[in-house]
């Protein structure tokens, strides 16, 4: 099993920055990839950023050039650096991971990010 806990959300002004963290516990060595998703009120959950066990990354179109996903050397924590924040970035941000041979998936509890104008 793998468990995920997100931290780092909060209130920030337009143009500001925040860094979210997602700490994994359990069978962290078996994680195949990590994602950050977000869900705004009344909208579907959308993929924000993705990083594989090899370190390859990709991003949703709305955050390219502003957000960066990274991982610590121990591969137990993933970060989402968010710069040049906009009001439309306001959402609950969720960490997600796939792990193991059976490709199990797990979600964190989410962390609120609010960008104030």
Considering the chains and any ligands shown, give keywords for the structure:
117 residues; globular; mainly beta; 0% helix; 4-stranded antiparallel sheet; 11 strands; 7-stranded mixed sheet
List the helices and strands and how they pair.
Blueprint: E1 2-7, E2 10-13, E3 18-26, E4 31-39, E5 46-52, E6 57-59, E7 67-71, E8 77-82, E9 91-99, E10 104-107, E11 111-116
Parallel strand pairs: 2-11
Antiparallel strand pairs: 1-3, 3-8, 4-5, 4-9, 5-6, 7-8, 9-10, 9-11
Please sum up the structure shown.
This protein is mostly beta strands and 117 residues long.
Q: Describe it for me?
A:
The chain has 117 residues and is mostly beta strands. Helix content is 0%, strand content 58%. The chain is built from no helices and eleven strands. The protein has strands at residues 2-7, 10-13, 18-26, 31-39, 46-52, 57-59, 67-71, 77-82, 91-99, 104-107, 111-116. The strands form two sheets. Strands 2, 4, 5, 6, 9, 10 and 11 form a seven-stranded mixed β-sheet that branches. It has a four-stranded antiparallel β-sheet with strand order 1-3-8-7, with no helix packed on it. The protein is globular and about 45 Å long.
Mean pLDDT: 96
Percent in helix: under 10%
Write down the overall geometry: globular
Helix and strand content put the structural class at: mainly beta
Rg, rounded, reads 14 Å
H/E series: EEEEEEEEEEE
Gap from first CA to last CA: 41 Å
**Unreliable parts:** none
For the biggest sheet, the summary is: 7 strands, mixed
Strand content: over 45%
DSSP summary, beta strand count: 11
């Amino acid at each position: 099993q793998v468990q995920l806990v997100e931290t780092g959300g909060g209130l920030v002004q337009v143009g500001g920055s925040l860094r979210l963290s997602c700490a994994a516990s359990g069978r962290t060595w078996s994680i195949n990839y990590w994602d950050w998703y977000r869900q705004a009120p009344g909208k579907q959950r959308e993929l924000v950023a993705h990083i594989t066990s090899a370190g390859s990354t990709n991003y949703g179109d709305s955050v390219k050039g502003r957000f960066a996903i990274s991982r610590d050397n121990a591969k137990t924590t993933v970060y989402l650096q968010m710069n040049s924040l906009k009001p439309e970035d306001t959402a609950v941000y969720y960490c997600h991971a796939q792990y193991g041979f059976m490709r199990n998936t797990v979600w964190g509890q989410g962390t609120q990010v609010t960008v104030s104008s």
